[in-house]
Amino acid sequence: MKLTFYGHASFAVQVENKTILFDPFISPNPQAKHIDINNLKADYIFLSHGHGDHVADAVAIAKNTNATCVAAAEVAGWLQKQGLQKVHSMNHGGPIPFDFGTARGVSAIHSSSLPDGTYGGNPLGFVFTTAQGNFYYSGDTALTLDMQLIPVWAKLDFAVLPIGSNFTMDVNDAIKASDFVQCNTIVGVHYNTFPPIVIDTEKAKADFAAKGKKLLLPGIGETVEV
Prior knowledge:
Elements: E1 2-5, E2 11-15, E3 18-22, E4 44-46, H1 52-55, H2 58-65, E5 68-72, H3 73-81, E6 87-90, E7 96-98, E8 101-107, E9 124-130, E10 133-137, H4 150-153, E11 158-162, H5 171-180, E12 185-189, H6 201-210, E13 214-216, E14 223-225
Parallel strand pairs: 3-4, 4-5, 5-6, 10-11, 11-12, 12-13
Antiparallel strand pairs: 1-2, 1-14, 2-3, 7-8, 8-9, 9-10
Keywords: Hydrolase
GO molecular function: hydrolase activity
Domain Metallo-beta-lactamase: 7-190
């Protein structure tokens, strides 16, 4: 599978000839000013929660690409109020079939409100199973023992975890999370965008390597094999 990083916690995964875009916060991010959202492709847009630094470009990209947006019920309802019709509402629970495989909503320990201040429901992580491989995006979350359930559902090829601390896990907790989900290939997100989440990236990679794990930190706009 190929993963393209768009800054902060936004990335896309190409799987089964589909492009799945996650948490698009691109045009408001000065670090991603070289990314033109009008040129992005997406068949699906998965939103982990309603905060502005995760949904900022969702409506514009969905309208431009005709992508199906997938999110918790409250976020899905807000998207529909913005004029989107291709919206799939979900919550924690069993796997949901899509044409690329399945997606399961799992616990994320965070908060969720929408840009208009309304309640955004429960934040989510996602576990994907596909014929080309399996992966986990935790969304914004603290370390939680619920992560130990994920290997029950899928043997992961890679996991996408926040590492910036302050609002989410830090590097050390992300290493423990990788133990819980039994995956040693980690893509780090949600770091270095704002002063409270600036980290030493070289130390982060070294800390993962010391535990026999690989931390991938692609540049904004860079595509990596995972």
